[in-house]
Amino acid sequence: MRYFFRRFMFFLLTLWTAVTLNFIIPRLQPGDPAEDIVRRLAGQNKAIDPAQVHAIRLMLGIPGGNIFQQYIDYLGLLVRGQFGISYTYFPYPVTTLIGQAVMWTVGLVLITNIIGFIVGNLLGALAAWKRNSAFDSFISVGLSFVGTLPYMWIALVLLFIFAFQLNWLPIGGGFSETSTRQFSWDYTLDIAQHAVLPAVSILITGPIGWIMGMRNNMVQTLREDYTRLAIAKGLKPWKVALFYSARNAILPNVTGFAMSLGGIMGGVVLVESIFDYPGMGRLFFEAVGNRDYPLMQTILLFTIVGMLLANLLADFVVGLLDPRVRKGKN
């Protein structure tokens, strides 16, 4: 119980620190969002009327006063579940915008994360079992090279080949402009077609981290006495690989997978921006560009809380699976 209590207290301390940083960091950006809005309406080369700026600040509810009072008000709003009105999409609350975007990101990032985790760990375990073979060399060297390629470059290449040149898949967006936007087989197929290129661009490099991590961990577990004993007993190779070696080697990846799921709220900013995919990543990119503090802070807050909760859950799961962790032993 002491292990779980310590992890929970560490979670609370980290959460308070994250909330505080989430309040401070957006305000370090230069400029005033109200002035930006007035400048866009009046024109870049025209003088700004201070009265218009003041009116915009009152309309948007941009906080005034000293920074400490703003921080207290910010914590009070969080406790009441009030996250404010978006500056960019006034008068919509930020929760409405996030609610519309989050399902797109969950559908894209969650599915690709699960596929990448399963495929990556299976390939990593197979490479470790067949270490020093041609397959292991391909996994270790070939995929290491592919892993150096950035998401943005891969996404642009896929977009150029399959959307512009071959015209097999849509250029961008989450659905066609001519779609009925009503639940049907045609609408579901249309959404799936728009998600293919973003998903593939993620899956090309996404599983590589799981592959390399699983391979390295399993190489170590294959040298343990319990694995050698299982081999000496004459157990079938697939049983030794899965139930003795891979079962223990996958434990570090469980924490990483939980944190990747917790980060779903943040989306994949570059990929969603390139494909104009209506998810959390694109919404966050727009919030940063427009200095939309309420929207930016809420997305960051949900992402941070999701990652912390996922990390806490992973700590609990690992603690239950491995008694050495609870007892503080290696």
From TrEMBL:
Gene Ontology CC terms: plasma membrane
Entries under CDD domains matching the protein: TM_PBP2
Transmembrane domains' residue ranges: 101-129, 150-171, 191-213, 254-275, 295-321
The keyword Transport is annotated on this UniProt entry: yes
Membrane topology type: Multi-pass membrane protein
Main location: membrane
Signal sequence region: none
Keywords per UniProt: Membrane, Transmembrane, Transmembrane helix, Transport
ABC transmembrane type-1 domain span: 102-314
Annotated family: Belongs to the binding-protein-dependent transport system permease family.
The protein's name in its UniProt record: Peptide ABC transporter permease
Organism the protein comes from: Dictyobacter alpinus
